[in-house]
């Protein structure tokens, strides 16, 4: 390969597939491999790493499970978009196995989102407040369209994340939000749940408008608690319906 940014060190020790994974991840972190970049062919990778093609396949499969790489039938190997929803697949599966996962997830969201809101309140300008209030009005208009509402909800929170001026916190908050989407999908289709979120959002914006960090943190933490409670209620309702359906099929 002639691309100087794609520098590979020959693999010499076992387990070789893990070393291939480590090197490819290093290239992604360094920016030598960017979202949607196409990698060299399987044969070229094997020659560059000094390993067999089955080893390359094993490494690619591992990175595909992590959401870092993707393969297209007959079209090669590509870096994924590296968006949170692709990278968090394994964690979403883990959450689905843990009875207490929802509670612990929202405990983390309260801490992180609350801290972000407190910091955002100190930086919020009148223009930011206007933008957030505009998003709330758009949310009200989309109350009958849960999918549109969820997109606007994400935009609302991401604007607050940006005000905190800490990319790491923003990424952490976005990742936690993405992890919770699977649990919240049914709950977020309820008009009552959306109405409560609108009330919560208005309280958050009022605190931001006053540049009151303590009030903003409190309002955001209460919002996270309300979302947790509606999500738990939705999960329980789904379980009850499933149990009744199973009983009906058995009788």
From TrEMBL:
Q: Which UniProt key words apply to this protein?
A: DNA-binding, Transcription, Transcription regulation
Q: Which SMART domains match?
A: FCD, HTH_GNTR
Q: What is this protein called?
A: HTH gntR-type domain-containing protein
Q: Where are the transmembrane segments?
A: none
Task: List residues of the HTH gntR-type domain.
Answer: 14-82
Transcription regulation as a keyword of this entry, yes or no, is: yes
Matching InterPro entries, A to Z? GntR_C (IPR011711), TF_FadR/GntR_C (IPR008920), Tscrpt_reg_HTH_GntR (IPR000524), WH-like_DNA-bd_sf (IPR036388), WH_DNA-bd_sf (IPR036390)
CDD domains xrefs: WHTH_GntR
Entry annotated with the keyword Magnesium: no
Looking up PANTHER family in the UniProt record yields: TRANSCRIPTIONAL REGULATOR, GNTR FAMILY, UXU OPERON TRANSCRIPTIONAL REGULATOR
Its domain of life reads Bacteria
Q: Which GO terms describe its molecular function?
A: DNA binding; DNA-binding transcription factor activity
């Amino acid at each position: 390969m002639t691309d100087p940014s794609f520098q590979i060190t020959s693999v010499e020790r076992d387990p070789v597939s893990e070393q291939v994974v480590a090197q490819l991840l290093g290239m992604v972190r360094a920016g030598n491999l960017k979202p949607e970049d196409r990698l060299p062919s399987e044969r070229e990778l094997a020659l560059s790493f000094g390993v067999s093609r089955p080893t390359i396949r094993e490494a690619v499969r591992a990175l595909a499970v992590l959401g870092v790489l993707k393969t297209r039938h007959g079209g090669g190997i590509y870096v994924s978009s590296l968006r949170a929803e692709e990278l968090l697949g394994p964690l979403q599966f883990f959450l689905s196995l843990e009875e207490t996962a929802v509670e612990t997830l929202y405990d983390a969201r309260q801490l992180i989102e609350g801290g972000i809101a407190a910091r955002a309140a100190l930086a919020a300008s009148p223009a930011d407040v206007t933008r957030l209030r505009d998003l709330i009005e758009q949310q009200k208009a989309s109350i009958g369209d849960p999918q549109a509402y969820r997109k606007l909800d994400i935009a609302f929170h991401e604007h607050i994340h940006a005000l905190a001026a800490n990319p790491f916190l923003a990424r952490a908050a976005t990742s936690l939000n993405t992890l919770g989407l699977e649990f919240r999908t049914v709950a977020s289709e309820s008009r009552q749940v959306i109405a409560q979120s609108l009330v919560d959002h208005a309280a958050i914006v009022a605190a931001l408008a006053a540049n009151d960090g303590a009030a903003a943190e409190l309002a955001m933490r209460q919002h996270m608690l309300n979302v947790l409670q509606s999500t738990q209620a939705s999960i329980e309702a789904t379980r009850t319906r499933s149990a009744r359906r199973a009983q009906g099929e058995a009788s």
